């Protein structure tokens, strides 16, 4: 991956968002709040480039409510995801 794939919250929280490749080659998004909540989504469709996903993660992690911001950023970019954990 040529784009930044992991982001930590800049506001002092433990929130973490990352993009990774699964064994089957699909792109996944991982969220961890640093305490008890871990969520994973599988990116659907080929229109979602690594750059677009990375931009969405970068914008979302800066928000105080990261998960709702993530959904909003993905929706803006027409990136479909399927929640597979959390």
Strands, helices and their partners?
Layout (H helix, E strand, L loop, with lengths): L5 E3 L7 E6 L5 E6 L5 E7 L5 H12 L4 H11 L3 E6 L1
Descriptive key words:
86 residues; alpha+beta; 5-stranded antiparallel β-sheet
Give a quick summary of the entry.
The protein has 86 residues and is of the alpha+beta class. It is built from two helices and five strands, in the order ββββααβ.
Structure description:
- With 86 residues, the protein is of the alpha+beta class.
- The protein has one domain (6-85).
- Helices cover 27% and strands 33% of the residues.
- The chain has helices at residues 50-61, 66-76; strands at residues 6-8, 16-21, 27-32, 38-44, 80-85.
- Helix 1 packs antiparallel against helix 2 (66-76).
- The radius of gyration is 12 Å and the shape is globular.
> What is the helix fraction of residues, given as a range?
25-40%
The overall average pLDDT, rounded, is: 90
Total DSSP E strands: 5
Uncertain segments of ≥5 residues (pLDDT<50)? none
Which strand order do you get reading across the main beta sheet? 1-2-3-4-5
Q: What's the number of helices?
A: 2
Q: Kindly provide the radius of gyration, computed on alpha-carbon positions and rounded to a whole number of angstroms.
A: 12 Å
N to C succession of SSEs: EEEEHHE
Number of domains: 1
Structural class, from secondary structure content? alpha+beta
> How much of the polypeptide forms β-strand, as a percent range?
25-35%
Shape: globular
Distance between the amino and carboxyl termini: 25 Å
Oligomeric state: single chain
Largest sheet: 5 strands, antiparallel
């Amino acid at each position: 991956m040529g784009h930044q794939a992991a982001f930590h919250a800049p506001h002092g929280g433990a929130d973490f968002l990352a993009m990774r490749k699964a064994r089957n080659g699909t792109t996944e998004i991982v969220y961890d709040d640093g305490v008890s909540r871990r969520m994973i989504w599988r990116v659907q469709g080929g229109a979602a480039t690594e750059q677009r996903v990375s931009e969405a993660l970068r914008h979302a992690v800066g928000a105080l409510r990261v998960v709702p911001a993530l959904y909003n950023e993905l929706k803006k970019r027409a990136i479909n995801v399927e929640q597979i954990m959390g």
